[in-house]
Amino acid sequence: MNWKKLRCELCETRFSCDKHHIIPRADNGSNQAYNIAVLCPCCHREVTSNEIQIIRRYLTSDGFRLETVRNNQRYIGKKEFNKPDLVQQLTLF
Ligand SMILES: [Zn+2]
Fold this sequence. Notes:
The protein has helices spanning about 40-50, 85-90, and strands spanning about 20, 35-40, 55-60, 65-70, 75, 80, 90. It is an alpha+beta fold. The two termini are about 20 Å apart. Zinc ion (ZN) binds near residues 8 and 10.
C-alpha cells in the first residue's frame, strides 16, 4: 500500500501521509490494519508528543475517522465531537 497517497485520518490532508501504530509496536501493538492510522506529518507529531490522544477509530461513510482528546475536549478527527450529523454516521470499527 502506498501510504503517501492516503488521506490523514485527523485533518484530511493528502500531504505526505504516513502510518502510525495506535498501540505502539514497543507495547506489542499489531502490524494489522486495524492498529494503523494514516496521519500527515503535522498530526503525527501532535499524536506522538501526546498533544492529541487517540481514543478509538470509526468507519464513516467518508472513510476512517479517529476519536481523539485534546485539552480535555473530544473530537472526531479535528471536528468537535458533539455534532449530531457527524455522530449519526459513525459506526464503531
Ligand atoms: Zn493531519
